[in-house]
Amino acid sequence: MEKKEQLIKDIQNLLNSYDGLRPTSINPDLLQFMDKKTLISIIDSLLTQKEQNSVSDIEWLEQFKTNS
Q: Buried b vs exposed e over 8-17: b needs ≥16 C-beta within 10 Å?
């Protein structure tokens, strides 16, 4: 599998890793015009967003732990 194709699949998998959201399907033709650097940047952005959401969720849950 070509590196760009794998990066596109990785983006799709990251988008589909959110609970409660309908599966996302990306037409690879839409991302083919992007270079590898741009695709990696998208992946980095999605991972950062996912990490920030996790930290936010943990902080939200911690408030209940300390109030008990």
A: bebbbebeee
Beta-carbon contacts of 28 under 8 Å, excluding residues fewer than 6 positions away, are 5, 8
Contact indicator for 56, 63 with CB cutoff of 8 Å: no
pLDDT (tens digit per residue) in 19-60: 677 777 777 787 778 899 999 999 999 888 888 777 676 777
Give Rg (Cα) of the chain. Answer: 16
- Model pTM? 0.66
Say how far apart CA 58 and CA 30 lie, in whole Å.
35
Enumerate long-range contacts of 43-47, CB under 8 Å, 24 or more apart: 43/7, 43/10, 43/11, 43/14, 46/11, 46/14, 46/15, 47/14
CA of residue 49 relative to chain centroid, distance = 7
